[in-house]
Sequence to fold (127 residues):
Amino acid sequence: MRHDLDAILSRIADGESQAEIARSLGVAPSTLSEYLNKPEHAERSARARSLSAEAWLDRGLQALTDAPADSNEIARARAIAQECARRAAIRNPQYSERHKHEISGDGGGAVKFQLIAPWLQETIAKR
Fold:
């Protein structure tokens, strides 16, 4: 594939989908994907996709803003915005509503705790 990698990565970062880019270049989406995932391109491709998250959110917001007051069109715009938000979260986990948090103690072991209220210690000991 003989295409300008920098131009392709710029289009990805600007929020254009790989399918849209592949179509404009006259190649199959799988061909473009293989090209972008080559070891020598993978890091830069991942960075461009991460940067595209904001553009995907903007695309969804624009769909909502442009939707006429007709209820069918609003529902369609909401679906588009939701899909754009999903794509943003895939490209950059920072845009995900779900966050994984792990709490562990020293060396990854159990968290040590101490009861502060003496009356609570007595209540627990009686059980």
